[in-house]
Amino acid sequence: MAQTSIAKRLDETLVEPKRPGFGGGEPPPGLPQTPIGNNVWLAIVVFLGAEAMFFAGLMGAYIVFRVGAAVWPPPFQPRLPVGVTGVNTVFLLASAATIRVALRAARRGDGTHLVRWLGLTAILGTVFLAVQGYEWLRLIQFGLTVSSSVYGGLFYTLIGFHALHVFGALVWLMVVFTLARRGRYAKDRYLGVQTCAMYWTFVVALWPALYGLVYLY
Amino acid sequence: MVNEMKLKILSILPYAGLALMLAPALAHACAVCWTGDGDPTADAFNWSVLFLMATPYTVVGSIAGWLFYKHRRAAAKPTEEAASQPALHLNWNEEESGR
Fold it and tell me: Is A63 in Cβ contact with B44 (below 8 Å)?
């Protein structure tokens, strides 16, 4: 009797547990048992690829005028504020670090730290935009406008579109921040934070390339 | 009357095309063809073309690389879990031990 019971339990133990999903039976051995991403994640990746190509087009146009010009910046045009924007770049790069920390907090299910680091990221982003806006006002006062020259037109188009993207990312971040404060994210439910962090990181990663091309080159 | 006009226009078109081929500089057919070696305009277009050509490869390569990395990580996960699990769960049971 005891032997039969042990044999029955051994049989039960040796049977492989059923895995959910993957309709059509068990996947062949060696293949991953979990999907590597989800549809929202993939959509954001494709969207960011399109965004990268959009900025590449603008940068390509800038390169044509910049390399083709004998004198750059053109005569009687104000110089760009390299130093202040350099410091501003540090603020934006710091925001990429803070949003990574926020994402880690979301993965741990740590709501308090998530809200705190998202808030800090939003503050850094706002500082970046505020300094950019202030510098733009000064440049306009010095006579650099969209219609003043090709130099002005390219500057405001390229840097303006980036600022617009930072503003969009900031709005998205504020929505995520509000939802995080309401406790909408958990250890196994943080896709909103993840996608927002992806977009924010893209916008931040783009800036050093633009700064190097427009301000330093 | 209208057909005659059409015929006239059609007969002029080949000459106009030939004129454009013989005098492309006047037609501004190409922005860089008529610049010499080392001309800044040609250099500018060359660098821009190279940059725009490299960007899609960089973008698609980055996405493919990231997906490959995620795939490898996901593939390695169940193996690690399986290695940490005992092959057989044998618990001591007082009832079945016979003691």
Answer: yes
Please give the model's pTM, rounded to 2 decimal places: 0.73
Is the per-residue pLDDT at A85 higher than 80? yes
ipTM exceeding the 0.85 mark: no
Task: Name every chain A residue with its beta carbon within 8 A of the beta carbon of B77.
Answer: 32-34
**Residue B53's pLDDT band (boundaries 50, 70, 90)?**
very high
Give the pLDDT of residue A38: 80
Q: Does any CB of chain A come closer than 8 Å to the CB of residue B45?
A: yes
Q: What is the mean pLDDT of residues A144-162?
A: 92
CA distance A123 to A73: 33
Give the torsion through C-alpha atoms of A193, A113, A128, A72, to 10 deg: -70
Which residues on neighbouring strands pair with residue A186, listed in sequence order? Answer: A189
Domain extents in chain B: 1-30, 35-85
Nearest CA in chain B to A5: B96
Q: Which residues of A touch B63 (CB under 8 A)?
A: 45, 49
Q: Domains in chain A, start-ordered, CATH in brackets?
A: 39-216 (1.20.120.80)
Residue A29, CA distances (Å) to A3, A60, B75, B80, B87 in order? 33, 47, 10, 14, 17
Q: Which residue has the higher pLDDT, A103 or B39?
A: A103
Tell me how close the Cα of A97 comes to any Cα of chain B, in angstroms: 20
Top residue of B46, B52, B92, B95 to mutate, by most chain A CBs within 10 Å, is: B52
